Structures are given as C-alpha cells and as structure tokens.
Predict the structure.
Amino acid sequence: MNSARVEFRGLRRRFGSTVALDGLDLTVEPGELIALLGPSGCGKTTALRCLAGFEQPDEGEVLVDGADITRVPANRRDAGMVFQSYSLFPNLNARDNVSFGMRVRKAPAAKRHARAQELLELVGLPSVGDRYPHQLSGGQQQRVALARALALEPRVLLLDEPLSALDAKVRVTLREEIRRLQLSLGITTIFVTHDQEEALSMADRVAVLRDGRLEQVADPATLYDRPATAFVAEFVGAMNHLPGLVSGDGVTVLGQTLPVEGPSPDAAQADVLVRPEAVLVTPDAEGDGIVMVSSFRGSTARLRIRLGDGTEVLADVPGHDSARFAPGTAVRIGLVERPVLVSARSETGAAAAVPEPDVV
Amino acid sequence: MPLLVFVVIVFGVPMLVLLGGTFTKEGTFSTANLTESLQGAYLTALFGSVKLSALVAVLGGVLGTFLAQAVVTSRFRALREAVLTASGVLANFGGVPLAFAWIATLGNSGVVTTTLGLGQHGWSLYNFWGLTLVYLYFSIPLQVLTVVPALDGLRPQWREAAQNNGASTWQFWRYVGIPVLTPALLGGVVLLFGGAFSAYATAQAMVGSTVPLVTLKIADALTGNVLIGHENVALALSLDMIVVAGLVMAVYLPLQRRSARWLR
Amino acid sequence: MASLTPQVTPQVTTQAATGTAPARGGRPRQRGATAARSRVWRGVVLVLAAVYFLVPLIASFVFTVKVPDQGFSLDAYGQIFSAEGFGGSLLLSLGLGVATIVLVLLLTLPAAVAVRLGAPRLRPVLEVVCTLPLVVPPITFVAGISTVLRWGPDYLATTPLYQTIIAVQNPDFPVVLVLAYVVLALPFAYRSLDAGLGAIDVRTLSEAARNLGASWPHVLLRVIIPNMRSAMASASFLTLALVLGEFTIARLLSFETFPNWIYRISGSQAQVSVAVSVFSLLITWLLLLALSSAGARQRSGS
C-alpha cells in the first residue's frame, strides 16, 4: 500500500458565529500516525472532515501528495474513515459491511467476499462475517468498521475518536492493535482524540489544537517534556503553577534557582510550570508542607500538598511509598534540577495548583 | 388479575358468540353463513374494503413519507414541531366530524364545490375516490407519525460512511437508506390499511351504502336489513374481517420488531 | 455524537450559501444547485400538504357562517345549544367518558404495576390482550356484543344474569357501552401508563418505600400514583377523546351519544351539524394540544 503525504494549508471554517478552524497549517508525513488532540470544539474533527470531504473549508486547501483535493466530492477521495460509533450499516452483516465499497464499485461477489474475509482476519475477527451489527459488541463493531475503512486500500486512514464509546479495557487493547496494524500496513493515519493518554501512547507525532489553530506538533516525549505553550503544558498531563522570580536566564522557585526553558517573560514575577513527577517529596517533621490528600493509582500515588504560604502543589510518588505520605504527614519538597517552563503570572493571583484534567 | 377476567368476559364472550354464531344456521352446525359471506354482494363489499384500504395505505404511505422527509430535513425546528403536533391531532380525527368537514368542503353544496363550480363537471364526493380522499386525511398524518422516528434514526454516519466507501447519494439510498427504512415504511402502510379497513363512521356518514364496504354491510345486516334467517351472515362477515385484520397484524409485528432493532 | 450534532444543521446553510455565490469553482455550485432543488421540492410538498389539510377546516367554517343572501352569520353556532337533544347526548357521552376513564384506570394501573414488579412473565400476555382490540375492528366487536344481547335473554331468562343483561342496556346510562369502551381504550391506556411507569423506575421507588416501612397500599397510593399523574392524565385524555368520538358501537346498539346525535340532525340541519363538527373538533384539538404540550413540558422538565 503506498502512503500519502497530507497537507492542510491555511484551513478556515466557521459555523455561524463559532470559528472551528482558524488558519490551520499542518503536514502529515507518509506512513506516520499523527494524533489531533484538543478539547472539544477545538476544530480537530472539522479538520478531519475537511480531509474526508464531509466539510468544505471556507478558505485554504487540503493536499494529498501535492494534489489539491479540496473540491473533490467525498465519495471520490482516497481516504478510509472510522467513525466514533454506530457507523456500520445495520441492514448488512459484517462481511457485507466490509465489502460495501467493492459492491459500489461493482466487484464480483466472490472476489469481494474473499477480500472481506481477508480483512476480517486482519482485524482479528475471522468468524463474525455472518453477524449483523446489533449482534456484535462495541469493540467488534469498531474492528469491523476499521476493516471496512481499509477495504478500498486507501492511502490515508482517518480515525474520528474511534475508541471513545468503548470500555476502558477494550479501549486499551484496541488502540494497541490499531497501532500494530498501522505500522504493518505503513498507512498514513490521522487520529482525532480528546484523550491525551491515547494520543501520547499511539502516535508518532501529536498535534495539539486550540480554537482552530495549531498550538504545537511534536513527538509525544517532546510534547510532554518541552511543551511549547502553557496551553499545551496544561492540556497534556497535570501541571503545577508555582510562583517564581525571574532573573536573567534563571528563575527562583521554592528556594531553588533553575534555568529557564524557552523565552523568559518580561515581568520578574512569573508562574513556573512543574510536572507533579518533577516534585521531590520527603517526609520531614520540620518540613514546610502538609499532605492534604493522597490518591493511590497503583504504580504511583498523587499527593496534594499545602505549603506554609498557602500554595498547593501536586506531587507524584512511587506507589509503594504511598504509606509514608498519609494525609497529615509533614513533608519537605524540592524540584528536580532541570530547565523549567515559565509563563506570565495567571490572573488568579497567588499561584495555585491546577485542577487535574479528567483522565478517563 | 381483574383485568384479564374483565377482558375474557367483555371481549372474549362476544368473540366466542361471534364464532359460534358464524357456524350456526337454524340451530345446527353449518358453514353456510361463511360461504354466503364470501359470495355475491358480500364478496364485492369485502373486495371493495380491501381495495379501498390498500389504495389508502399505499397512497397515504407514500405521501406521508414525503411529508415526513420534508419535515425532517427542514432546518426550521418550529415547523417540525407544528407538523408533528398537528399529525398527532389529525391522525385521531376520524368518524362523523371528519365526514361532515369534507361534505361541507367538497360535497354537493360544499364551499369549494360551489365556489369552483365543480358540480357542472360531474364532481361527486360520494364515491370510491371521494372516500379515498377523505380517508387520506387521517392516514397521511398517521404515516408521518410512524416514519419520522425512523427517519430520525437514520444516522448521518451511515451516509458519510457510504460516501467514504465511494457510494453516490443514489447508491447510499439503494443499499442502505431504503433497506433500513423499509420495515418502518411497510409497518406504517400496514397500520394505515388496518385503520382504513375498520373505519365505519366516516363511510356511513358520507356515502351510506352507495359504496360497497364490508363494514357497511355488517351494519346493515345487524340493523335487520337482511332476509329472515340470514342474520348470522353479519357474524360471518365479521369473522372474515377479523381474519384479514389478523393477517395484517401478523405482518406488522415482525416488521416493527426488525425496525426497532435496526434503528435503536 | 455530541461533536457531530452542531455541524449537521449549519451544513445545509453553507451549501445553500455556496449556491448563491457563483464565484467558487464548478463543484460547489453543483452542490448548491442540489441543495436548492431539494429546498424547492420540500417547499412544494409542504405547501401541498398545507392546502390539503387546511382547506377542509377553513371550508367547514365558511360553510357554517355563510347564509344564502345574508352573508356572514354565527347563527349556526348559537343554534347548537338550543337544538333538541344536544344537552342530553353530550351529557351522556361525557358521563360515559368519565365512567370509562375510572374503570380503565382501575383495571390497567394495578395490572401495569404488577407486571413491572411481580410478574414480568405476564407481560407478553398483557401485551397481547392489549393488542387484540386493535386487531379486531370495532364493528366486529359490536356484532359480537349485539348477538350476546339478542340471544342472552332467550337462554338466560330464568337466571339472575337476565336481569344483568337488561340492566346494562338501560338507555339512560348504557353500562354496556362503558364496558365496550373500556376494551377499546385498553391499548392506549396501557401504553401510556406503561411508558409512565418505565420513566419512574417503579421497582427502585417501591423498594425504597418498602425499606422505609410503607405498606403495599401505601406504596401504590402515596408513591406510585403521585409520580404517575401525567401518564394517568394522558391515558384519561386519550380515553375521553375516544369515547367522545365513538360512533360505531353506540349507533349499532342504538344509543344516542353525542356523535350519533350529530349524525341524526345532519339530515334536517346540515349547517348546525357541521358547526357541531367544527366545534367538537376544536375541543378535541384543545384537549390533545394540552396533552402534548403537557407531555413536552414534562419531558423537558425531567
């Protein structure tokens, strides 16, 4: 299967008064899996639908291997799509669903059935060909939908939150399987999700969108360790906002001076962004902090610590250590020595720990 | 349960008597009533009813579906609400008042008839086609009520998935849209048939007995408009009707179940 | 799903908009043309429907207020109330309606609750029982009833049942009609009550009440019925509408209910009978509109 390069150029789309896409520029390399990540309403689904042909951008163009396909009708584009849920045709069994595209193209029945069987085996469902969608579980339905999207050997695979309607467990196995399949087929894949964990664990690169614009596109590790903007830092993983004092290339925070990553703000007073796992906690009866809440998560435990000046800090400690940090324990905290991201002081005044984004 | 006892007495006894009466002639068991009910004028009436109901069902089904589609695809929310509420009311609007409303409109001295001078062109409401026109008045809304939920149940993803697989609009309707809607559409048509088949009040008020219909024949027979010794023909005719209506329901229920499964 | 919904409706708008903006390439103009065509088609369908459904209503009204050589007059509506038989037949129908409502609720509510709580296996039986009256056309039902009433006296003359049969046919208040109407109303009443019960999760409610020490009658009267008010109202409205409009059974058993009265006077006073039709239609509409808006309010409230 030959894979395509996909380019979004200056894509703009507005619905009434809301701007879904506001000049999106993004290039997807052949064979890569890129995740479009962002809160709902950030335009990620609209971008995907512009590529699939279900939306027309008001401005800008979509290019596949350099060819402008912006005005090509949806049924003549070379992109297979998997929808959020319930997209299988209810009146057709799994095999006929998968071979729908070949039927539309008037392929002989024997040939398309053989091909459908091949695809069902590929997605790990060799024996459900005769079943109807209502007889399949949610995970099975999405596998069949994936087989259907791959049936016409598209050069681009589009996944629109395909896992969001599934149980947590199925979600994890299926995402691993999608990734495995994508790697073995080498097909250019665009994956829309609002789940940062999903995006980080599956994608070659993650593009974070906000209000119809690209905030950052980078591989998962870079995105997590070196978020380009405060928005990305907060959206991907949990983040502490600690009050700091900027001087030259360094910033003083909680009594430590750390180098500043990226541009320094003009004001001396700034927020220093620190990941919970970069906060070091040791039990110390003389310490300045008190553990308020401890939530055990298996491999780690997340602590909410209140310092003497009222600042709240989130910190992760190894799960087996959680017994030492019961609520009420006095602790001393420090930060891992490494460059930190600094942003302008938030309006909320004294920096408070950000509430954690919901990780489902 | 008191409900079951009640139904057995009030509903079951008349039905048993009906069954018994059908097969009784001059005190002995006989199928003569049934045979008679399937001959001559009675057979004509039965056919007349089936023909009228089938025509109303098909026309009402098609027109109602068009109306439902127009309402569902419209982007005016208020229009949709208005049509659905009106359909709820009109689908229950039958009987004598309906007949009179139409007589006042297109009857011999009806407002539209006299205004447009239709009388000179040989127009008459009091025939088979007139009845069809009037029956559609409650049948189309009924079809709208049945079909709108089904049209709403057609998920946009299906159309998009079909496009994504290279299907044109026509191919989407042919392979997915129409097959998915068929049970609901047919179910609606069957309901319309049943409604038109058992209607009596409207027909009685409009045409008396000038159009042969089985309900009118039964009423005639019950009110003594038959030869002595043939009273039980009314019962036999009733049994014929129940059989037809039962067949109709036997078609409807599985269709409805399938539709509910697809469009859940 | 949530992210799709807001995008579906505006899509129509923008397609229509591209249709009016020919500066775009060939493709969107074509799509715009399709959208415009379907809009025209939709308009034609809706206009035809409006004509078909509104003309008889308007014409009926015109018919009742148009007096030859005089023009406009509301006399026909005034005559309704003075017409002979109007009050009696309307009262009879209303009385029958009330009796039917009471009886149908007394029968179906306990049955519906019992099926939900204690005997779910009886549900199919109940469903079938409540579908039968839809399968059997009213006219065949009345054929059966009239036969029973005709033959009954011959066979039962010596038993107390004879008295019963005579009593149910009392022309002042024909109980037999109430019984027949209960059967006809069963499907509608059962469905709306069952839907109402489905919406409140009777099992949990009654278990909670039992857990707090309430007796069964107490549960039914104080917990379930108050929560079922709107479902019971809708069942009652539907039953009332059915009884007020029922013609077949009353006519063939020769009782002069309201619809039969309209039918009888149509021969001599055509205008008045149409006026009553319009009038009764309006009342039915108001009832059903009240019902559907109450239902809508409840849906949005919950």
About this structure: Chain C has a mean pLDDT of 76. The CA atoms of residues 209 and 218 of chain C lie 9 Å apart.
